């Protein structure tokens, strides 16, 4: 008989184990399965994602957080500056504080006594003058001016704010419409305005006089410098104006009295007899000009007047010394040679046979005679200052088909 072994009882028989072990958290067989709990935020975010609002919500949250951070920084800075403020003491506390102890200082050095010097010994004293300066009023009457050495028509006109032709029109009996007649010592009428100066003649009428000068009768009557009373004028055809009365014609103009040489044809040079003894008789035909001109002198610059029809100066005054050669500007025939009674002195006029005519004035001598054919560059005379000339120069004029032209437009 085999004895029972008690050691086997100490180890109970193991129960049958299923082929697959269940996980520790697995529910017991036959019980209900309970899902684990999920965060509400994750569920909310999942729903937002399903609705397509996750990105917008993220942006909104970021902006809200940033705004909160800014407000927090602002609040912190406000607290910081509030701690740094100095507490203002009451007004009574400042008055109750002890006064500072004065510090002794030295007295400044004693200055010398000030004395006022005599006003007449130094400086410029200011004097009180009981005087009122009244500005000058515009002139209405004619004044006088005595020509001085070195004066010119243009300089005098500029001095008085007038046009040069006004001086000629206001001094016809002195200057004779010729600017070269200006001489030192002459007394000129200086009109207050641009215009003409007319001496009333017996039988004159206001309509005729005003029309001649290109103005209205009222312009003459109403001008204060004429001292006419409109109520006493009467009939314009026979106005009550005393003969010999000088009247200012403001804005008036007139034709100049020609003192220059007219067109002198080869077949009738005698028309120039009114100019003086230099006029020619009959002239035979001769050289014909080419229509191209040269300078009539060695110098090519001015010494006096320029071409100025407004002052009745239809030529140019070329500078030079007495005795300098004067040349024919183009081929032609001499139709005037000799003295001129109208201020030109010794003159030579050349007809070029093609509508052109040239004039050479104020010569000290002339080397040609009436009817002589000359050619371009021929010496016709010598420069001088004869006639109404203030200095040695050549007065040179050009004319085409009876009309005077500007030499500057044709000289090289």
Question: What's a quick, concise take on this entry?
Answer:
With 412 residues, the chain is α+β, with helices and mostly antiparallel strands. It is 20% helix and 17% strand.
Strands, helices and their partners?
Layout (H helix, E strand, L loop, with lengths): L39 H12 L2 H31 L6 H6 L46 E4 L6 H7 L4 H7 L1 H4 L11 E4 L4 E5 L6 H8 L3 H5 L8 H4 L12 E5 L64 E5 L5 E3 L4 E9 L4 E7 L4 E11 L6 E2 L4 E5 L9 E8 L2 E3 L7
Antiparallel strand pairs: 1-2, 3-4, 5-12, 6-11, 7-8, 7-10, 8-9, 9-11, 9-12, 12-13
List keywords for this structure.
412 residues, alpha+beta, Membrane-bound Lytic Murein Transglycosylase D, Chain A, Glucose Permease (Domain IIA), nine-stranded antiparallel sheet, two-stranded antiparallel ribbon, 9 helices, 17% strand, elongated, disordered N terminus
Explain what this protein looks like in three dimensions.
With 412 residues, the chain is an alpha+beta fold. Among the domains are: 108 residues, LysM domain (Membrane-bound Lytic Murein Transglycosylase D, Chain A), CATH 3.10.350.10; 141 residues, Glucose Permease (Domain IIA). It is built from 9 helices and 13 strands. Strands 5, 6, 7, 8, 9, 10, 11, 12 and 13 form a 9-stranded antiparallel sheet that branches. It has a two-stranded antiparallel sheet with strand order 1-2. A two-stranded antiparallel sheet has the order 3-4. The relative contact order is 0.09. The N terminus is likely disordered.
């Amino acid at each position: 008989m085999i004895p029972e072994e008690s050691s086997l009882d100490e180890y109970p028989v193991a129960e049958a184990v299923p082929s697959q072990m269940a996980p520790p958290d697995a529910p017991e067989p036959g019980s209900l399965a309970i899902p684990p709990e999920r965060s509400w935020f994750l569920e909310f975010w999942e729903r937002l994602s399903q609705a397509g609002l996750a990105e917008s919500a993220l942006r909104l949250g970021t902006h809200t957080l940033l705004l909160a951070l800014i407000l927090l920084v602002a609040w912190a800075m406000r607290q910081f500056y509030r701690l740094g403020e100095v507490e203002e003491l009451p007004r009574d506390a400042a008055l109750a504080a002890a006064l500072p102890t004065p510090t002794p200082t030295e007295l400044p050095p004693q200055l010398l006594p000030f004395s006022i010097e005599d006003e007449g010994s130094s400086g410029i004293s200011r004097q009180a003058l009981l005087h009122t300066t009244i500005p000058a009023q515009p002139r209405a009457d004619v004044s006088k001016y005595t020509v001085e050495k070195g004066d010119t028509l243009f300089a005098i006109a500029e001095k008085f704010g007038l046009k040069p032709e006004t001086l000629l029109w206001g001094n016809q009996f002195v200057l004779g419409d010729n600017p070269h007649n200006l001489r030192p010592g002459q007394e000129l009428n200086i009109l207050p305005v641009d215009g003409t100066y007319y001496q009333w003649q017996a039988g004159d009428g206001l309509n005729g006089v005003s029309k001649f000068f290109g103005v209205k009768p009222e312009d003459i009557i109403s001008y204060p410098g004429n001292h006419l009373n409109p109520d006493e004028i009467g009939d314009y055809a026979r106005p009550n104006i005393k003969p010999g009365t000088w009247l200012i014609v403001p804005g008036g103009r007139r034709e100049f009295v020609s003192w220059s040489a007219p067109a002198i044809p080869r077949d009738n040079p005698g028309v120039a007899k009114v100019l003086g003894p230099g006029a020619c008789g009959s002239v035979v035909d001769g050289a014909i000009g080419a229509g191209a001109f040269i300078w009539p002198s060695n110098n090519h610059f001015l010494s006096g007047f320029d071409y100025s029809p407004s002052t009745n100066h239809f030529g140019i005054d070329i500078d030079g010394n007495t005795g300098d050669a004067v040349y024919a500007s183009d081929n032609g025939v001499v139709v005037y040679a000799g003295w001129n009674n109208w201020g030109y002195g010794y003159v030579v006029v050349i007809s070029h046979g093609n509508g052109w005519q040239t004039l050479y004035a104020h010569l000290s001598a002339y080397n040609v005679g009436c009817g002589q054919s000359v050619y371009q560059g021929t010496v016709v005379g010598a420069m001088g200052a004869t006639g109404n000339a203030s200095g040695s120069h050549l007065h040179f004029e050009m004319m085409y088909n009876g009309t005077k032209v500007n030499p500057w437009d044709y000289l090289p």
